[in-house]
Every structure is written in structure tokens, then in C-alpha cells.
């Protein structure tokens, strides 16, 4: 039998007894009144005990009770216990999370909606020189580098920003912001000092080697030309060897020149001027037509007279590489179309050929250094594999981007899009 049934039955029995006794004694109303009073007093006492127990948090074992009240005490006690266990588990999890983030080698800072620091781990305190008392302070007041403030304000956290550590300028940090939740952001900073050092060493090494190779190459080329001039073509083996040697030294010279250009692009400060792109394209086309005997293969359409802010020599290299490739990787009887035109928000140079095309899987890789597509061409096409890496670097330095569309056997289209804020005429 349930507790409620028991409770109801006992009340009914009590009422019956009271009614019988009341009828026999002739005090029915008084007896019922006394019964009601008794019930009210009992209920009030139980509520009072319950209130006293619950007001102390309900933590202690509940007082002895009978019937429905024992049941009520038991349920509340059980819920309280469950709640306590859940809280314990949660705080253990938070502790573990705190401990693990504290042990992270990367700095992590939780930022609130107004850029205030909500929490920072040990690495963040060390690398940014933060103190526990800085919690609640706005981060732009503590890390004052303009690049960082601009990045934080921009709201565009696709890329990261490179900064020196505010307490040790020899430490280089890569800072990234990851938005999450309602207006909250996680700032992560990684120490990339070693990486930067290695990158600098690689750049220096390539620059030094390329530079050092220049002189011996020039000497070799000079002697080779003299030997070729002296060759009376009596020995086909010797003549052929001279030809092969000349081809290889020229290839090496191109490689060294391309490597030096790439190093310059990576290390040199940007110099800018207003470049007359239509004039530059005209010049490049006539030079290449003369050099590569590509007469009538190039069709240049100038739909805009836009000049752009940039570095003429760098743009010349990029455009020459793209045009050179378009001619190189297509049949001599096909056309290469150049179009300088304006689109919404940008000014674009497209170079379209009807050549061998590039497979989908190769497109993302061809701008990597030394990447050359392996194809079974009838005639061997020489190259260094550095041309498109140069193009990519030049465009990056001009806030421009390269789009490549291509279909195998049909041709390729390379588009260089410059933002229209670069237009200067
Ligand atoms: P290189 O031409 O010296 O090999 P690039 O970096 O200029 O080096 O080009 C990389 C590779 O991309 C080339 O080897 C070639 O396979 C491919 N490529 C570049 N331009 C074209 C093009 N217009 N048509 C087809 N393939 C191309």
C-alpha cells in the first residue's frame, strides 16, 4: 500500500472514530473541531521542522518523521545529495581543465565582450607579463602594439598576427583569436622565435649560396663561349658537349637568378610607385614576341587604362613569367590572350592560353617552389619550377591574388586581381 493511501485511510478512520464518539456523547461538532485542530497543529509542527531543516541547507540527516513526511524528507534529501555530487563532479572537471590549460605550453587568455581579460593561463602570464591583478583589465591597455590592437578591433580573425613579447623583444609570438560563445574570445599565443630563426637561416642560406654561385657561373659561361668560338666543329662529340654545357649553365643561371629574386621579394622593403600597367604590358608583349619569336601569338586587350600602386620591376617579373608559361606550355600555333580590365572592386589581368592545361590535383601545388608537373610532352620544356612562386610572392606584396582555372587539353587561365584601392590614376 502506498504512503498516500495509508495517510488517507488513517484520516478516514480517525474521522469515523470521532463521528461515532461524537454521536454517542452528543458533542459531534466539538469533536470534529478538535480533530481538525489536531490535524492543523500536527501539519504546522511538521512544516516548521521541515522549514528549519531546509533553511540549514538540508545537509544534515533529516529529522525522524512518519508517513508522507518521511517520504517528503527522503525525496528532498536525495535530490540535495544528487545536486551535491553533480557540483562536486563539475568543480573537479573545472579544476582538471584549469590544470591542463595551466600546463599548456601556449599562452591562452579568455577575453570578455569588452576585450577584458576573464582568465589567463601560466604561459600567458609569463609571456605577456600579466599578473593575477590584471584579470578584468582591458587587454589593449596591457598589450599596446598597434598591429595587435588593429587585429583585435578588426573582428576578422582568419589570420594571425606576429608580435614581439611585451616583456622580451627577442621572443616572437604568433597570436590568434578564436571567437566562441556569446561575444567571448579565446586568445592563443605561440612562441615562434625558433621557427622564425630557422626561416631566417634558410633565407640567408639560399641568398648566400645563390650569390656565391653567380661568379663561378659567369666565369664558366665566359670560358664556354670562348671554347665554342674556337670550336672548328671537327669533332661532333665536342660540339655537342659544348652545346649541352651551354644549355645546363643557362639553366643554372636562370635558377640562381630566380632564387635571388625570390630572396629579394622575401626580404626587401616594398618600394612603391604608380605603375602604368597598360604601357608595361605593351612593353612585355613586344619584348617576348621578339625574344621567343612568338609573333602573332599574343593578343593584348586593354579595357582599362588603370595604373596601380606597386613596384614596376616586380610586376614585370610576375607578368613575364605568366606570359612566358602560357607560350611555353601551349602549341606554337595557338593564341595567348591578355586582358587588363576592371571588375567590381578589383582590376584584373587575365592570361588565357589554349595549351596543355593543368590537372585539378596539380593546380594547388604549382605555385610551390620547384614544383613542376610531370607530363609526357613530346618536346622537353625547360624551367626552374620557381616562376609561379615568384608570381605568388609579387602578388602578395601587392595585396593581389592569383586565380587559376584550367582544363586538361583545353588550356588555362591565370587571373591576377588587384584591389581597386591600388588604382592610382
Ligand atoms: P617552370 O615553368 O619553370 O617549370 P613555374 O613555377 O612557372 O615553373 O610553373 C610550375 C609548373 O606549372 C610548370 O612546370 C607547368 O607544369 C605548370 N604550368 C605553369 N603555367 C602553365 C600553363 N600556362 N599551362 C600549363 N601548365 C602550366
How is the topology of this model organized?
Blueprint: H1 3-25, H2 28-55, H3 68-103, E1 107-111, E2 117-120, H4 122-128, H5 146-154, E3 161-164, E4 172-180, E5 184-191, H6 193-230, H7 236-267, E6 273-275, H8 277-291, E7 298-302, E8 308-310, H9 312-328, E9 336-343, E10 346-353, H10 387-397, E11 401-407, E12 411-419
Helix pairs in contact: 1-2, 6-7, 7-10, 8-9, 9-10
Bound molecules: adenosine-5'-diphosphate (ADP).
Adenosine-5'-diphosphate is lined by residues 321, 325-326, 329, 353, 355-356, 358, 366, 371-373, 383-389, 412.
CATH class of the largest domain: Alpha Beta
Helical residue percent? Answer: 40-55%
Percent of residues in beta strands: 15-25%
At the fold tier of CATH, the topology name of the largest domain is Heat Shock Protein 90
| Overall outline | elongated
Distance between the termini: 96 Å
Radius of gyration: 41 Å
What would you say the CATH architecture of the largest domain is?
2-Layer Sandwich
Work out the number of β strands: 12
Classification by helices and strands: alpha+beta
Number of helices: 10
Bound molecules: adenosine-5'-diphosphate
What is the N-to-C succession of helices and strands? HHHEEHHEEEHHEHEEHEEHEE
Low-confidence stretches: none
Please give the domain count. 4
Q: For the record, what is the CATH homologous superfamily label of the largest domain?
A: Histidine kinase-like ATPase, C-terminal domain
Strand order of the largest sheet: 2-1-5-4-3
Largest sheet: 5 strands, antiparallel
